[in-house]
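Fill in residues.
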């Protein structure tokens, strides 16, 4: 499995957007940062990711299911970058 930095180098939609977010130097407003930190997958997505991951572990993942798991991985990594940026913004003491 690729690491976060490997995903950031990929030219998928999520990888490109993650690079844009990561290279911005200005900080998020407190409200935007708190909202971003609150983002999470719904139960049905978590269940689907678990199913796909189990298939991958068993070696039975193929075709559209493999592409779907890749999409979940890319979006998960993008969310991690966004939430890291949000946490960083909330640690900065200056007023927004």
């Amino acid at each position: 499995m690729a690491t976060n930095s490997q995903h950031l180098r990929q030219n998928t939609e999520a990888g490109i957007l993650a690079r844009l977010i990561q290279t911005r130097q200005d900080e998020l407003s407190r409200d935007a940062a708190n909202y971003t930190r609150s983002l999470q997958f719904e139960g049905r997505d978590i269940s689907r990711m678990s199913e796909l991951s189990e298939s991958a572990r068993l070696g039975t993942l193929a075709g559209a299911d493999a592409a779907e798991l890749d999409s979940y991985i890319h979006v998960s990594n993008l969310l991690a970058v966004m939430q890291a940026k949000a946490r960083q913004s909330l640690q900065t003491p200056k007023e927004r």
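The radius of gyration is 16 Å.
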